[in-house]
Structure formats: structure tokens, C-alpha cells
Structure to design on (520 residues):
């Protein structure tokens, strides 16, 4: 999807003028650089490498576009303004901490044209880290970061030939490798050249966000250059691993994960799979990809129900990965969402549960919602993708005001509160038939069922429990209001009841809200 990084890069390039446009021409560089450009000038002391950080890695709950971006009124929508405001944010992750998320993608790429905006920056080895430090350097302890490394999308960034993933020459490729190593070194948390005041290390990296994303949005298919991007993935992977051998590297995300069976974007989705990702995987033959990333939104009127197609795209690429040497490569969904408009806050909140629980049940390891606070650029355009967030941004008809939390915010928080700490390798599918979905989780020796009804009418459902269960707590996971604005007390926002159990079973009426059935 369109991210903050796109307009920032565009403005940086325009602002820099001829000084930045050098990459599309033959630059007057110094002597050709050797292949080892950017290697560390000296070994990192072993004592520093021993530094330990508190990290909770097994949680599946993630958030893309995670930082609590500042309020930007309509008269201050310039990218430069936003850029300055981000650099001054005091608590960019206050919502992340409140909601309990353990994995994030900040929502602003560590992009070469931002960090080194001019030819002089590159040649002199100077960097502009202010915005990156304020986002990546302030991630609270215990939260894992998947950081995007990019040099701008094809055609608008510098360093590659327009319409391809080929560097304009070997010198520029060398400079890119140096940039990658400097970025990893700054945020790897080993005590050597770390960002000042770094709170949490970055150990997970991603090459680009959506490699073909920008050309799709411009209705162009000019960079289906899987050969060139294979090389980008390889050199980025190697540069990251040389700097931090313990780092994990993901490939940029599949744009049309949601369109595997769709009536809209079906041709685009097939082209993306068959003319880019599949030949790329076959070309790399099991190397340079630790995580395969799928983005899954909606594409037509079937949005609220298309979460059921997550398994189709997962199976398609699980098969391709397994057949091409990637059996140990995990599949993550780092962008999923359903907008609250044109739908409702209730429907969005219910979809939070479905779009997390369902993929976790068949093998997906991490799922990231897009995004925390609403906003799809340009901000002033009122379209569905402007309303994916869990918090309102004050823009659009009917918006109740900046910072107002939606029902989905509280549903997400409750989901993490109840399920965090479960045995994620032992999720049992109890039922997926007749429009009834029931899944069993185990947490600290006790069971939790997650259930929902996809039928239009309420359904009476019998749930078989452990014979030793004496009582259960049943919670409707969507708050008991029409909108999040009505929630004044989170602890009292959900309909709950406790029921005694007889003979190890219980019958409940499932309506339009998913429920948790917790063994007491």
C-alpha cells in the first residue's frame, strides 16, 4: 500500500534537485570501489557483542505503521512538515505499548535517499539519521522490529536504472552496500556505532517493502525485473549478515496476496506471482530469504469475508518455497486490514480476530495489522485505504476526531491480553464448517476457545471442553458499543459472563461477535 515513505522520497528527490538526480546519470565518482566496500573498519570487540536485550520473539501479534504519528491538519500536509514533526515525536510508540503488541514495522522505511539525500552525502560518507533514530532508536524494550531497507521504489529512488532493478553502475552498487551496513550497524544493538540512546535492537530486516508496489499504483508494469531484484535480495542479505550474523532477513512483500481468487486485480496478482516472485524463488534456489512476506487486504465487495482466502495464497507460496529449497523459510503476513469505512467499526473489529486467528491456525507465524493511526497518502483523500487504522486521524466525513480509538483498537488489545503466552505451535482447529469457526489455544495449562459465526443468523453451538473444567468465562471480543468513542472504561467495555460446566460441555449462542471461552 502507499506508505509515508513514498511521498517523503519524492519530496527529498525534488528538493535536492540536480544534486540528487545524479544517480540517473553517469556520476563523476572517485576511483571504482572494491567489492569489500562498507566492511567494518575493525572487528567488534567480543565483550560488546555479549550485550543482551530483552526480546519476546514468539508472539505472533504485530503492527505495521506502528508509530503514533503526529496530528497533521489539512493546512500542514507537506511532507517536509511531517518529516520535521516525526523527528520531534517524544513517544512514537505509546499506542503500541498500550495495546501490547510485541512486533512492529515502523511505517517509514530506512531509505537510502532519505538517509543520504545528496551525492555529497554518499561520497563523504555522511548520514542524516534524525528521523530514523527517533523511530527505530525509540522502540521500547521487549518489542521486536522488522525494519525495511530500501533505496526508493523503482523509478523514483536513486541508484537503479528506471524500470529495472539494475544499479546504474558498480560504484553505486558499492555505495548502496555501504549504506545497508551502516544502517544495520547503527541499530543492531551490539554497542558498536549504535544510535545514541538506542532502546532496543533491530534484528529483523526486510529488503524493500513491496518491490512492484509503486508501478502497480502508477498502472505501469515496468519493473517485473526478477533477475535484477534477485541480485538486490542477495547483496542486501549478505550485507546485513556480514554486519550482524544473527540478523534475520525477509524479502519485500507480495502486493496482491488478497487477489488470489479475486474478481478485481486477478490479472495483476497472477502477473506478480508468475512473472516476479516464482521465477525469483527458483533463481535463488533456497538462498537469501529467511522470511517470505505476504500483504493481504481486500479488493472488492467481498472484503469482510475474504479472510478465508488467506489459506489459498499461503498454500500456493508454501508449495513454491518448499519446492525451491525454502522449507525452513517462514511465511508472515506483515500487512493485513479491513477498513472501518465504508464498513462499520463493529465489522472491522470482528475482522481483527478472524484475520489473526485463522492464519495462525494453518502455519503463519506473524501477522501485522496496517496501521495504528489512520492515514493513507494523500491524507485529504477520503477512500477506504484511509480508514484501515485502529485510531482516527480527524480526516474524512464522519470522523470523530484525531486520536479517538475505534472498537478494533480495544478488540486488538483484548486479543493480546487473553492469548499472549499461548503455545503457538499447538493451535487446534475444532471446527471450520457450517459457517462456524472454533479454535483451541492452550495457555499456562488452561484452554481458551476462540469462536465466531459467519452466518447471518445466530447459531446454537455446542463446545466440548476438558472433563476437569468446572467453569468458563465467555467474552464477546468486540466491545458492547456502536463506536470506540463510547468506550470510557476498557475493563468494563466487553460483555462477559461466567458459566458453570456440566459433563465437560457447554452450549452457547454465537451471534455476530467473536467470543473467547476461557477455562477457569
Amino acid at each position: 500500500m502507499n506508505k509515508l515513505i513514498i511521498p517523503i522520497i519524492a519530496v527529498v528527490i525534488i528538493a535536492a534537485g540536480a544534486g540528487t538526480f545524479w544517480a540517473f546519470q553517469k556520476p563523476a565518482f572517485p576511483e571504482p570501489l572494491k567489492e569489500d566496500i562498507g566492511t567494518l573498519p575493525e572487528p567488534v570487540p567480543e565483550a560488546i557483542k555479549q550485550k543482551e536485550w530483552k526480546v519476546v520473539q514468539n508472539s505472533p501479534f504485530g503492527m505495521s505503521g506502528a508509530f503514533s504519528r503526529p496530528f497533521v491538519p489539512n493546512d500542514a500536509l507537506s511532507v517536509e512538515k511531517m518529516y520535521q514533526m516525526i523527528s520531534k515525536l517524544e513517544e512514537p510508540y505509546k499506542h503500541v505499548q498500550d495495546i501490547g503488541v510485541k512486533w512492529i514495522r515502523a511505517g517509514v522505511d530506512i531509505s537510502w535517499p532519505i538517509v543520504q539525500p545528496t551525492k555529497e552525502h554518499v561520497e563523504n560518507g555522511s548520514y542524516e539519521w534524525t528521523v530514523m533514530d527517533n523511530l527505530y532508536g525509540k522502540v521500547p524494550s521487549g518489542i521486536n522490529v522488522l525494519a525495511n531497507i530500501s533505496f526508493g521504489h523503482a523509478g523514483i529512488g536513486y541508484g537503479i536504472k528506471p524500470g529495472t532493478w539494475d544499479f546504474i553502475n558498480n560504484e553505486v552498487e558499492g555505495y548502496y552496500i555501504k549504506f545497508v551496513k551502516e544502517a544495520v550497524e547503527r541499530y543492531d544493538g551490539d554497542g558498536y556505532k549504535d544510535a545514541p540512546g538506542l532502546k532496543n535492537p533491530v534484528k529483523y530486516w526486510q529488503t524493500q517493502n513491496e518491490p512492484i508496489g509503486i508501478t502497480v499504483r502508477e498502472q505501469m508494469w515496468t519493473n517485473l525485473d526478477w533477475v535484477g531484484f534477485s541480485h538486490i535480495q542477495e547483496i542486501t542479505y549478505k550485507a546485513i549478515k556480514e554486519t550482524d550474523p544473527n540478523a534475520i532477513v525477509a524479502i519485500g512483500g507480495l502486493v496482491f496476496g488478497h487477489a488470489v481468487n479475486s474478481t478485481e486485480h486477478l490479472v495483476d496478482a497472477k502477473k506478480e506471482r508468475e512473472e516476479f516472485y516464482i521465477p525469483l524463488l527458483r533463481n535463488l534456489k533456497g538462498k537469501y530469504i529467511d522470511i517470505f512476506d505476504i500483504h493481504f487486504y481486500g479488493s472488492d465487495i467481498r472484503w469482510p469475508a475474504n479472510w478465508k482466502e488467506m489459506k489459498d495464497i499461503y498454500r500456493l507460496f508454501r508449495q513454491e518455497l518448499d519446492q525451491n529449497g525454502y522449507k525452513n523459510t517462514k511465511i508472515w503476513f506483515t500487512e493485513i486490514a479491513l477498513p472501518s469505512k465504508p464498513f462499520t467499526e463493529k465489522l472491522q473489529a470482528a475482522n481483527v480476530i478472524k484475520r489473526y486467528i485463522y492464519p495462525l491456525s494453518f502455519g503463519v507465524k506473524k501477522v501485522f495489522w496496517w496501521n495504528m493511526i489512520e492515514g493513507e497518502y494523500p491524507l485529504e483523500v477520503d477512500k477506504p485505504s484511509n480508514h484501515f487504522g485502529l485510531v482516527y486521524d480527524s480526516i474524512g466525513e464522519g470522523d470523530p476526531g484525531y486520536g479517538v480509538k475505534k472498537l478494533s483498537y480495544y478488540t486488538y488489545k483484548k486479543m493480546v491480553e487473553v492469548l499472549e503466552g499461548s503455545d503457538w505451535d499447538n493451535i487446534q482447529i475444532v471446527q471450520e464448517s457450517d459457517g462456524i469457526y472454533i479454535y483451541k489455544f492452550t495457555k499456562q495449562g488452561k484452554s481458551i476457545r476462540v469462536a465466531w459465526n459467519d452466518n447471518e443468523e445466530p447459531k446454537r453451538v455446542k463446545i466440548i471442553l476438558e472433563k476437569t473444567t468446572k467453569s468458563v468465562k465467555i467474552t464477546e471480543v468486540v466491545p458492547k458499543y456502536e463506536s470506540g468513542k463510547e468506550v470510557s472504561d476498557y475493563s468494563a467495555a466487553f460483555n462477559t459472563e461466567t458459566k458453570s460446566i456440566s459433563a465437560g460441555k457447554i452450549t452457547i449462542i454465537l451471534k455476530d461477535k467473536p467470543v473467547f471461552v476461557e477455562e477457569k
Notes: The radius of gyration is 23 Å. Residues 266-284 form the longest helix (19 residues). The chain has two domains: 5-419, 428-519. The first strand starts at residue 61 and ends at 64.
